[in-house]
Write a structure and sequence with these properties.
The protein has 7 helices and no strands. With 156 residues, the chain is mainly α. Among the domains are: 47 residues; 39 residues. The longest helix has 18 residues. It is elongated. 8% of the residues are buried.
Length: 156
């Protein structure tokens, strides 16, 4: 989306020298990729119709909940207690859960659930080695031992 300054530059340059000049001179004045030729053609049309280079106001229902004030309240609440659920935040801030989710998404907050991992203690490798030796010894006495054990990848 072009800024007001960029649109005015495009309009003046278009009337002075044409669309090619706008695209060619864009890099001298701005550090961004020039707009497409169609965009340059649309700016004078919009100016002639509405006497403004800016976009017309959008139609549709105006936002009532996602105000800057509420956005700030949500961000402060999350910063204060980041472990709170969106449901609890919504309840405390008197907003809908979906509105809170939308505001957090808009601010690039990501939800995640930390996975608990079983940490290894210092003597765990020694105990594992001892257990393996014990099992191999048991296997010598009972060759069907491993068929009697239910193996699982669950840690608890």
């Amino acid at each position: 989306m072009l800024s007001k300054e960029e649109r005015i530059f495009a309009l003046k340059t278009f009337y002075k020298s044409g669309v090619t000049a706008v695209v060619n001179e864009w890099g001298i004045h701005f550090r961004s990729k020039p707009p497409s030729r169609q965009t340059v053609y649309d700016i004078p049309d919009r100016f002639e119709q509405h006497e403004s280079v800016m976009d017309a106001p959008r139609s549709g229902r105006p936002t009532t909940v996602s105000t800057d004030d509420n956005l700030l309240r949500v961000c402060l609440a999350v910063t204060k207690s980041p472990r709170k659920s969106t449901r609890r935040l919504a309840s405390e801030l008197d907003l809908s859960r979906r509105s809170v989710q939308r505001m957090l998404h808009k601010q690039n907050y990501k939800s995640y659930i930390p996975r608990l991992l079983h940490g290894l203690l210092e003597d765990d490798p020694d105990r594992r080695l001892q257990f393996c030796g014990l099992m191999l010894n048991q296997h010598k006495h009972d060759p069907n031992l491993f068929n009697k054990i239910i193996w699982s990848d669950e840690a608890n």
